[in-house]
Amino acid sequence: MIVHIPNVLTKAEVAHCRSVMEPADWVDGNVTSGHQAKKAKKNLQLLEGVPAQRELADIVLQALNKNNLFFSAALPHTICPPLFNRYNAGMTFGTHVDNAVRRSAGGLRIRTDISATLFLSEPEEYEGGELTIEDTYGSHSVKLPAGDLIIYPSDSLHHVTPITEGSRSASFFWVQSLIRDLRQRRLLFDLDGAIIQLTRDMPDNPALVTLMGTYHNLLRLWTEV
Description:
The strands form three sheets. Strands 1, 2, 4, 5, 6, 10, 11, 14 and 16 form a nine-stranded antiparallel beta sheet that branches. Strands 3-7-15-12-13 form a five-stranded antiparallel beta sheet. The chain has helices at about 10-20, 35-40, 50-65, 70-75, 180-200, 205-220, and strands spanning about 5, 25-30, 40, 45, 75-80, 85-90, 90-95, 100-105, 110, 115-120, 125-130, 130-135, 140, 150-155, 160, 165-175. The protein has six helices and 16 strands. α1 (about 10-20) packs antiparallel against α3 and α5 (about 180-200) runs antiparallel to α6. The chain folds into two domains: about 5-175, Sandwich (Jelly Rolls), CATH 2.60.120; about 180-220, DNA Excision Repair, Uvrb, Chain A.
């Protein structure tokens, strides 16, 4: 399930993040790579745990906590502290699958059910740099406005195409969901969306009570806490 979540950060928040990132110290992105990714990854990254990364991570987490679409799609149990990367001309990240378990600098360990990229550069600022995600329906090329988020299953093959001009900055992180099974998570997301639409169109429809009860009973049945 690939979900585009627009306007997670406001333009002002994006501008602030970029002002913090610009003078920060960038290191080889392989500082957080697993064995497989080291062979494919060529980018820069803010070192995890430094003041700039912690400040920016807090901004992103606060924004996620206010975003209803993110919660509906991800049903987060735990969010790994967001990290930040940059791709300059010639940089890329070849095809890979994210590690099944991530451990943050603070010792937090999560199962990676969902991967996320929050774009901090506008599409016109760089050439190339598309996030390409493969699923049973083919390849999906993603290049979103600054402040928009894409989430997708962490077991998906994905890559970032080479940057040919300009620079691309983003935040990236992983989510352990309350619902481990992707099929169950998709059903709950679709049901929640239908409830929201029915609430807007027919707020007095008595079926809403039944639908909401079904949603929460399925959530109760499937949740892992």
